[in-house]
Amino acid sequence: MKRYVCIHGHFYQPPRENAWLEVIEQQDSAAPYHDWNERITAECYAPNAASRMLNEEDKIIDIVNNYSRISFNFGPTLLSWMEHHAPDAYAGILEADAVSLKACGHGNAIAQVYNHMIMPLASARDKETQIKWGLADFEHRFQRKSEGLWLAETAVDMATLEAAAACGVRYTILAPRQAKAVRRPEEEGWQEVNEHQIDTTVPYKVMLPSGKSIVVFFYHGALSKGVAFDGLLNSGALFAARIVDAFQHTSNPHPLINLATDGESYGHHHRNGDMALASCIHHLDKEEVTLVNYATYLDEYPAVHEATIHNNSSWSCVHGVERWRSNCGCSDGGLANANQEWRNPLRQSLDWLKELADLIFEQEMKGRCAHPWQLRNDYINVLLKRDKATVDALLDTYLEEELETSDRELVVRLLEMQRNAMLMFTSCAWFFDDIGRIETLQVLQYADRVIQIAEGETSKEILRDFLKMLSKAQPNAGDFEDAAEMYLQQIRSKRLDLNSVAMHYAAASLFEDSPEKLQLFNYTYENIFFERFESASLKLSVGHISVKSRVTYYERPFYFAALYLGQHHIIGQFANAMDGDRFESMYIEMRDAFRLNQVSTMTEIMQRYFGDHRFSIEDLFRDQKRKVLQMLMEKDLELAQLSYKEIYDRSYDLVNKMRTSKIAIPRLLRRNMESVINNEILLFFADDQSNISRLDYLSEEVVRWKLKLERELLAKETGDWLHRRFLSLITDPFDIEQLDLITRAMLRVHDMDVQPELFQAQNVCFTYSREYADVAHVEGWTEEQLVRWKVKLKAVAALMGISL
Questions:
Q1: Count of C-beta atoms within a 10 Å radius of residue 160
Q2: Does residue 519 register a pLDDT over 80?
Q3: Which of 8, 56, 355, 712 would you call most buried, defined as having the most Cβ atoms within 10 angstroms of its Cβ?
Q4: Could you please report the per-residue DSSP string of 130-181?
Q5: Which helix (H) or strand (E) holds 205?
């Protein structure tokens, strides 16, 4: 018996980008990380590209790329984010597929439907676009066609399989309970099965109404559940043993034990799950089993068994696909006594909006494009490379030649409406207990973007009817009466337009060192005129810019004056139209009044020229507002730190006497000491200092006084400092002073009981130490110097948890 194993990981996050800016704004719930993508990348996606193999002493003996040994898929929108924000992990994912392709003849990666839409609930056109966008995104990134396709929540019906097969998909992966009946190759009759009866060790061919077929792998239910929920990742050895044990229950001469779970099990849901996976693979390599991907197995053993499926079924809802449209009872259990009655009105509201968007799309495309839905399918090319050349090439292919520029730009806006109309069906919006979670707010933001574009291009009144339907959804938590009120306050009130972007620029221009280099995300601007004035207490910006969306090509002029009065007080006013002479007069009057420090005169001038069009610091985008407020606090923080340090220095001897006399130290003075020492330690690492004697003193103070430290923040700063130090060793590998510095710093960090975030530093240290540990000669060194250097290298590696 030849035995095969395939472990599949479904790695996915919902799109989290602001629907107008196309960037993820800070998500406080993901702290200490900027957002959930960043956090889960640190916990899961990056570690699986560089997972640690440990010896009996818990020292690193190897760093391996798990993706090169398992089958996997990544959500396209997640990979798009990783490409720009987690390039090392992204490169590791692509490299793993290339390695597996070379080793097995087939790459481990497979595609996914584009934005995790529940396919049985989608229209035929949306099914086609979701599949084609997912396949095109995959081919763009992995430089090959995908043979397999992951369906969101493994939600399936025959129409979805038909659409996948029509696009050339060879296979997909489903849960065992999604199988309805099976037929062996030598049999004519069908045998009905349930999740416990189906043989998951063989692939099945599903015959489709068109005459085509597609292969389905039904994963091993018990093993997959064990990974996700039952603690199999507590031990890599146990994980491997359970997989090997599964072979005892099959008579198949060449069985495939395959399991599938959310990829986030391997690190996010289960701490160090990546290491358990790496350990499992290590143990499996010692057994008489072969790790394969699905395509490699299919080449060796084509599907000869047949299966039929349960239409409208999925892996995460025992009621089929009701989790995404009704109060079926499935939930995450996060809220006691919660119901999901809100799911149906949310689905109905978005279905209504989608049908209306489709109608508008078709109507507006008449006379402009003969094949609008094919055009939408190919719009993925623009999403993968949003530049003028790509847009023009796409439009030239599909649009009538005589169309004006305004018509071409309208078509792009309609395509953006369609993109957002599909994004609003991302499955996570219905998955959890309450409509007020960030996942649902995200899809409502996409809905608002659809309404904004649709109302901007037609005379239709859409919002009123949408709110009427949405009001039937009742949140389980929070202060909102219904989802319509929640939408108005949480989404609609934060809708952006070109004026919003321009107001952000005007307010931010007061503080940026180089306002002309200010980034406006999905928008560009032409700086026609700009001047800034500063005094001891005031700042004034006056400007005329033209703002344009890189996505929809909307463009608008913007004239402004912005006055900073100190603290967080900004007074700004603007206009979208102003002739040149009037603008010049306003500018001169504002300049002269500023030079005379006449604040009331400046506000009167702004009112006279601009009227009631105002903005303030509240019009800054979330991350920029945070940045500006932190910058405005810097001076106060600096003064506070100086004051704390002065009190610390002045009271130190007295406090020390109290300590030696075993007299309780006043609480405020202890907290002051903790603040000063914490700040000094943070500065040492953040400022990349190398005066190790200073760190010696600070660590002694921490131990002597038993001070409380900001360990989470220190863990990050010390890890970043070590990473930078090891990078410098890569460029100057025999810098013995650098090794000494790292050694002493690590010892002091251990003395303070701080656990540095070592992931990046260990990656570099492992490469460095393995490359140079066996060096036999260094030019200009004596044998004694080389031995001394090797001793120090071994000591550093040991402190970093690496075995040499």
A1: 26
A2: no
A3: 8
A4: HHHHHHHHHHHHHSS--SBEEPGGG-B-HHHHHHHHHTT--EEEE-GGGEEE
A5: strand 204-207
According to DSSP, residue 314 is labeled -
- The Cα–Cα gap between 479 and 433 comes to 16
Identify the burial level of 526 via C-beta atoms within 10 angstroms of its C-beta, where 0-12 means exposed, 13-18 middle and 19 or more buried: exposed
Alpha carbons within 13 angstroms on the beta-carbon side of residue 173 total 32
- pLDDT at position 516 over 80: no
May I ask the CATH architecture of the domain 4-323? Alpha-Beta Barrel (3.20)
Q: Do 732 and 739 touch, CB atoms closer than 8 A?
A: no
682 pLDDT above the threshold of 80: yes
Q: How confident is the model at residue 244 (pLDDT cuts 50, 70, 90)?
A: very high
Q: pTM to 2 decimals?
A: 0.94
Return the bridge partners of 524, or none: 548
Q: Crossing angle for the helix pair 483-490 and 438-457, nearest 10 degrees?
A: 80
Nearest to 606 by CA among 534, 541, 532, 527: 541
DSSP string, 280-299: HHHHHTTTT-EE--HHHHHH
- Per cent of the chain over pLDDT 70 is 100
> So what's the pLDDT on residue 401?
85
Residue ranges of the domains in the chain? 4-323, 343-494, 498-606, 621-709, 710-804
User: Which two structure tokens, joined as six digits, stand for 299?
Assistant: 């080449």
Q: CB count, 10 Å around CB of 649?
A: 10
Nearest alpha-carbon partner for 335 in 476, 522, 475, 137:
476
Secondary structure (DSSP) of 399-466: B-TT--HHHHHHHHHHHHHHHHHHHTTBTHHHHSS-TTSHHHHHHHHHHHHHHHHHHHHSS---HHHH
Average pLDDT over residues 49-72: 97
* Alpha-carbon gap, residue 797 to 804, rounded angstroms: 7
Three-state secondary-structure class, residue 43: helix
Q: 3-state secondary structure string, 540-572?
A: EEEEEEEEEECCCCCEEEEEEEEEEEECCEEEE
Tokens of 474: 């009742």
Residues 284 and 303: their CA atoms lie apart, in Å, by: 25
Q: How far apart are CA 231 and CA 516, in angstroms?
A: 54
Task: Provide the edge-to-edge strand list for the sheet that holds 523-534.
Answer: 523-534, 539-549, 555-566, 569-575, 614-615
Beta-carbon-side half-sphere exposure of residue 685 (alpha carbons within 13 Å): 26
Q: What is the mean pLDDT of the chain?
A: 96
Please, are residues 122 and 130 in contact by the beta-carbon 8 Å criterion?
yes
Cβ-proximal residues to 479 (8 Å cutoff; 6+ apart), any chain? none
Q: Given phi > 0 = left and psi -120 to 50 = alpha, else beta, which region is 538?
A: beta
Joined tokens for residue 619: 């019009």
What 3-state DSSP class applies to 27? coil
Question: Residue 153: what residue type?
Answer: E
Q: What is the pLDDT of residues 750-772, one digit of tens each?
A: 999 999 999 999 999 999 999 99
Distance separating the N- and C-terminal Cα atoms of the chain? 39
**At 605, is the secondary structure helix, strand, or coil?**
helix
pLDDT tens by residue, 621-678: 989 889 889 888 998 999 999 999 999 999 999 999 999 999 999 999 999 999 999 9
| CA dist., res. 617 & res. 628, Å (int) | 9
Q: Determine phi and psi for 546, rounding to 5 degrees.
A: -120, 125
DSSP output for 671-710:
HHHHHHHHHHHHHHHHTT---HHHHHHHHHHHHHHT----
Are the beta carbons of 520 and 546 closer than 8 angstroms?
no
Distance (Å, whole) CA 560 – CA 544: 7
